[in-house]
Design a protein that fits this description.
Elements: E1 13-19, H1 29-46, E2 49-56, E3 60-67, H2 74-93, E4 105-108, H3 115-132, H4 165-168, H5 174-195
Helix pairs in contact: 1-2, 3-5
Length: 196
């Protein structure tokens, strides 16, 4: 049976996720973060795209990427990032063979029922992923810390984050957008409390 074709819609926002082989925690600790950040930086130099969110969770990663019309597609971007992480890990650990479990999963956010609501909730889902895995106590203190870019103006982290226009549509100024964005955190925390 052939695999379904990936949706590589250009000018769209893609939520991408991929898992380490056998779901092993190959990306835990300082070196996992280093491989992840270096690979994203290399990709940002090579290709034109907007990185909306990025988080590392020990045995998998999440990236929210907005591709640009007539530029590289999501498959090219993700293939580059995944390959660089695998190369760095194998070189430093003197190993060879596959690093990733499978091809990456993805969803086009603009094709969901309510794209703005979907994305803003998704950002908190991704931010809370390390918290759920007990790798962090607060999404604001995660290793990558992308969520801080959405909470404090002029925040800079090790990788360049582009604030999605859905966030800017929440209000007339940054503070109003943040206040409304925090409602999505509250909704996520309520759901989390029900699940656990």
């Amino acid at each position: 049976m052939t695999r379904p074709l990936r949706n590589v819609a250009q000018g769209c926002t893609h939520h991408c996720y991929t898992t380490c082989r056998a779901k092993k925690y190959l990306l835990l600790g300082h070196y996992g973060k280093k491989y992840f950040i270096e690979s994203i930086k290399m990709c940002q130099k090579k290709y034109d795209f907007e990185l909306i969110a990025a988080e590392i969770v020990g045995n998998h990663i999440h990236l929210v990427i907005r591709t640009l019309t007539d530029k590289e597609n999501i498959s090219q971007i993700m293939q580059f990032i995944k390959s660089r992480i695998a190369e760095k890990y194998n070189r430093d650990n003197r190993t060879c063979g596959p690093f990733w479990n499978e091809r990456f999963g993805s969803k086009v956010i603009e094709e969901t029922e309510n794209p703005q609501q979907y994305l803003l909730y998704l950002l908190w889902y991704i931010g809370y992923n390390p918290v759920r895995k007990k790798l962090s106590g607060d999404p604001r203190k995660n290793e990558i810390g992308f969520i801080r870019c959405y909470l404090s103006l002029n925040t800079q982290i090790e990788i360049k984050i582009t604030i999605h226009h859905y966030f800017h549509e929440l209000g007339s100024g940054f503070d109003e957008c943040v206040n409304k964005f925090l409602y999505f955190e509250e909704a996520y925390r309520k759901r989390l409390a029900i699940l656990f």
